[in-house]
Specification:
The chain is an alpha+beta fold. It is built from six helices and four strands; from the N terminus they run H-E-E-H-H-E-H-E-H-H. A four-stranded antiparallel sheet has the order 1-2-4-3. A hairpin with a 2-residue loop joins strand 1 (10-13) and strand 2. The longest helix is centred in the C-terminal third of the chain and has 80 residues, at 98-177.
């Protein structure tokens, strides 16, 4: 059985990774009602941390947020059972078939793979946060001089544009109106001094 196809049937409910009764029934190749009857007959080995009923709100939320991997045909009042990793392991003992034992092994492997992925993800996430903090500190000292240089460049560009505009106006005045350069007075741009 392919681990990835099993992982697609693992959901997070109440902060736990769980599988729903109809998905498990499909994997174990039994009807959902048969699986639920077997669980009911052996309820003493399925404590709350192994198995629980979804609330109406949880079930409706799952239906609206996820595409179920199996067409769900059940009355609206029949809420699915959610099995934790330990509950899934116990199901193999209750169903007592060779297929159920093999399926349980595959399901446990899928849960383990998810745990390993979560652990690796957490380590990578922590490392990225550490690097981000380190490089933010390094770049904070560089931002101020860069901003100064950018502002200085903007001012110099403005000065060049003023000089170019002044030159163009002077040329137009000379050519069109035959006005002498000395007759035109333009205000001089202010020069600003910046210190680091």
């Amino acid at each position: 059985m392919h681990v990835q196809s099993i992982q697609n049937k693992i959901y997070e409910v109440r902060g736990q990774k769980v599988m729903l009764d109809f998905d498990l029934a499909d994997l174990y190749d039994v009807e959902t009602r048969v699986l639920n009857q077997a669980v009911k007959r052996n309820s003493d080995i399925f404590p709350e941390d192994f198995m629980f009923h979804l609330s109406q709100k949880e079930w409706e939320s799952m239906l609206s947020q996820t595409v179920m991997t199996y067409p769900v045909k059940r009355p609206k009042t029949a809420l699915p059972l959610a099995f934790t990793e330990h509950g899934v392991t116990m199901l193999a003992n209750v169903l007592k078939s060779k297929k159920s034992r093999q399926t349980s092994i595959s399901i446990v492997r899928a849960f383990i793979a998810l745990k390993q992925f979560a652990l690796n993800y957490r380590e990578i996430s922590d490392k990225l946060k550490e690097l981000e903090t380190k490089y933010n500190k390094q770049f904070n000292g560089v931002y101020e001089p860069i901003n100064f240089l950018l502002q200085k460049d903007k001012q110099e560009t403005g000065l060049r544009e003023c000089k170019q505009t002044r030159y163009q106006i002077e040329e137009i005045a000379k050519n069109k109106f035959a006005i002498n350069e000395s007759e035109i007075e333009f205000p001089q741009p202010k020069k600003t001094m910046h210190a680091f």
